[in-house]
Amino acid sequence: MATVEQKTVDTSRNGGGDGRTFAVENPATGETISHLPDMDADQVRELVARARVAQKDWAARSFDDRAAVMYRMRKWMIDNRDRVARTVMEENGKTREDALLADVFITADALGFWAKKAAHYLADERVRSHSMFTLGRKLVVRYRPRGVVGVIGPWNYPIANCFGDAIPALMAGNAVVMKPSEVTPLSSLLVEEGLREAGLPGGVLLVATGTGETGAALVDEADMIMFTGSTRTGKKIMARAAETLTPVSLELGGKDPMIVLRDADVERAANTAVYWGMANGGQICQSIERVYVEEPVYDEFVSKVIEKTRALRQGRPEGAGSVEVGAVTFAPQVEIIERHIRDAVEKGARVELGGKPADGPGRFFQPTVLTGVDHSMEIMTEETFGPTLPIMKVRDEDEAVHYANDTRYGLNSSVFTRDVEKGERIARELSAGNACVNDALVNYGATELPFGGTHESGIGVRHGAQGIQKYCEVQSVLVTRFAPKSDIYMYPYTPTKSRIVERLSVLLYGRVPRRFRGRG
Ligand code: NAD
């Protein structure tokens, strides 16, 4: 495989200059593939100041003019898909298919989606007043860009979960400073190059390379922070943003459950569990991280999952169709996966398949299936973020729902049953921001649907109307065209005016509407 081209990228245009650098590694080979500037607070401040200047002109452009840049960028992504996928593969260690599906195609789709929908979601909203004091006024809710949005991203989807969030921010008229993960910064630099070729004006999107401190500095400077990453860092960001009352939107970790009921299509359920448990090496915030199976189909489900997992090929990702499961991107993750498996085995779990790091060179963990698990084990309660599938037998639907909801997270969830009404009823009982029936994770591709976590999986959503409105300040505008010289509540206070206002309030608010009488 060719080496990544960003090795030679001139990052000085981004504000990086002399000073500290950090190394970027290919986790599938262990080779160092680049060194980039570890930007300090002054450099971040300078980047945000440049973005702030560029934002004014960008915000003054029409939605169509901004959309034209996004469509050109979409074309660029597809024309350059090989180069983009290779860059993601080299710094992340994922397969070509995982890189193409999420980082290239999902991002290309998002570019078109927001280009098309932004004007609709952010159009002025005319509302009618219910209040006697504002009757007849023109009332408008409008969305105006916040200014400079800081987008801080993780390493598991270097483009989709970093630039992917910048797209609606840009379409809303903001400038963006992206702080990609220090583990996978090269694809963001490539995206920035693509955006320049697509005609994005200089300074509207800048990349701050660096470690956690660079991200913390961005929290201090930006007008809003869109963060995707671990729950631990999300809490730190929220605390820091509180100092400046900077709004945050947080997409955090998960421990997503899958429920398989006795009337499920077990073949489809097993295929889904293996795919969405192992895809991207199990390093998806909404990976299937734990499975609850009703007793009558438990044995069948487990044997199908083992058989399908055994067939997976793992190794250094090369061309199309070379392997199914790639590397463990981030070195400390191996210890977490091993710890969870060790803890489970010590408490009585059985490793049906895998269970160990795989042979190098590079950093791999064998696709692993565990049975005999319960909620005393970390593997059922803490985010593992690796190619692991722990499967637990449950008595009935109620027990499945009970365990699915026994978590501090709440990102995605799924239930498999041929009875779709029952499936939807159970989905609504699951304590998660998202729920699928006879499917998993594909809801993410339905960009019209808000996607976000509850509890410790996050605050706010990406996608849907709220996924772009959050990048705006809401301004309420009231316009009075015809009015008397003085309104009744104004000075001077007189007994007559007071009596009228009092009577009006009794008339309006002094009774319970008929259809609510005697209810509740
Ligand atoms: P992480 O929290 O370690 O790092 C994420 C980003 O935050 C990196 O760019 C990092 O440099 C930066 N950062 C670290 N400390 C910071 C600080 N104090 N202030 C500001 N920025 C700081 O997460 P990770 O290990 O890169 O990513 C994996 C995690 O991301 C998993 O928990 C996964 O579930 C989660 N994730 C969530 C979603 C979602 O949509 N909910 C999507 C992808 C990943």
CATH superfamily of the largest domain: Aldehyde Dehydrogenase, Chain A, domain 1
Assembly context of the chains: single chain
Small molecules bound: nicotinamide-adenine-dinucleotide
Q: Report low-confidence residues grouped into runs of 5 or more.
A: 1-17
Number of H/I helices: 16
- Under CATH, the topology of the largest domain can be stated as Aldehyde Dehydrogenase, Chain A, domain 1
CATH architecture of the largest domain: 3-Layer(aba) Sandwich
Overall residue-averaged pLDDT value: 96
Strand content: 15-25%
The spatial strand order of the largest sheet comes to 12-15-16-11-10-17-18
Structural class determined from secondary elements: alpha/beta
Q: Please indicate the count of domains.
A: 2
User: What is the terminal-to-terminal distance?
Assistant: 68 Å
Please tell me how large the radius of gyration is. 26 Å
Strand segment count: 20
Largest sheet: 7 strands, mixed
* Name of the CATH first level of the largest domain: Alpha Beta
- Helicity, in percent? 25-40%
Global shape: globular
